[in-house]
Amino acid sequence: MIMADTVKDLLIEYIERELSESRKQHTYGVVSEAKALAKHYGADCKKAELAALSHDIVRDKPQEVLDDYVKKFNLDTSYIGNSNLSHAKIAAEIIKRDFGIVDTDIINAVSYHTTGRPGMSLLEKIIFIADAIEPGRTYPGVDELRNIAYENLNKACIKALENNINYVNSHGSYVDRDSILAKYDLMAEERRLNEQ
Fold it and tell me: Which domains does the chain have, with CATH numbers?
């Protein structure tokens, strides 16, 4: 990756200019958590930092703006009217187009940070769970999830996916297929690891 520090500075400038105060705090919380998890699990801290800075860069945009991006980037039409899912896919496109990020692992970590997916890389798992457990999160069960995250990353991701799936189901909303597939893929990975 060319000039990671320059890209980092540009992302921070964008965040400071475009995001609400609460979104900035969340983003910097995810950065802190992602770097700590990366260090703990031996992942690339610079990549974790860039992915964490990038993950919610369009989250504060109005729905109609996000819908325009969905069309502009030729994303699946199921993302129309669904900012919870579309913001991640759009952010992945924006970091390629506007910030010159070409590292597939960073792009995927941003793209799948809300849903997960089967075959997640270590970086993808770190960003997914950092988003769920950053210091500003206060939902029931978050402290347990924080503890699990530093003991077994796969188990933490499985637990977070189960929580997300249950939450979305309880609100009668659409559960993204990637979340369901990610959960079963991680469960299979854990079984394989336990059999070794």
Answer: 4-139 (1.10.3210.10)
| Backbone phi, psi, residue 139, to 5° | -75, 160
CA distance 18 to 118: 32
Strand ranges, E, within 13-153:
none
Cβ contact 30:127 at 8 Å: yes
Residues 126 and 43 sit within 8 Å (Cβ to Cβ): yes
pLDDT tens for 161-196 read: 999 999 888 888 878 999 999 999 999 999 998 887
User: What φ, ψ does residue 167 adopt, rounded to 5°?
Assistant: -65, -50
pLDDT digits (tens, 9 = 90+) for 151-160: 999 999 999 9
**Residues 122, 93 contacting (CB under 8 angstroms):** no
List all residues 6 or more positions away from 130 whose beta carbon is below 8 Å from its beta carbon.
Answer: 30, 33, 34, 37, 48, 52
Residue 173 DSSP symbol: P
- Residue type present at position 143: D
